[in-house]
Amino acid sequence: GWYNSETDQSKLLKKSFINHGNGKTLEGDTIFYDKAIGVGKAFQNVILKDSLNKINLHGHYGYYKEEGEIGIITDSAMMVEYSQKDTTYIHGDTLYSFAYKKDDKMALAYHNVRLYNNEFQGVCDSLTFCSADSILHLMQMPIIWNENQQITGDTIHIYPKNGTINKMHVVNNA
Asked: Which candidate, 98, 93, 26, places its Cα nearest to that of 62?
């Protein structure tokens, strides 16, 4: 790769990573990084790690901006949330994460969302997840499966407690 000391821009090749501090790293086969504005773009085999909140975003294109801790992943996008007893996997066309408070992060998944953990599986069009309360909000035609049961509605809110589902709230057309 290369680094321009006058512009603080670099291009890194062959499975490189940028450590953004606070437990955040951006990995990829190719990374363009502008240190002056705190923006990194990664291509192929991308992982945006947030080890403090125990969330990883995977895909083949990634963007990370240090200000606001904004991350975007597309092209085979997957979120792995491992802060609870059971790991949750979320796939979507686009994954977006940002800090809305100092230590609280929000993750959004858009279009063709699929999610899985050992307790349930589900599909929906859009999903939001907040690290502060770990509540999953499934929107636009969500379906949840658990063993031989199926739950549908216009919106489903999943409330965890101690690493397991405590309750679900199904809004409209349950």
From this structure: 26
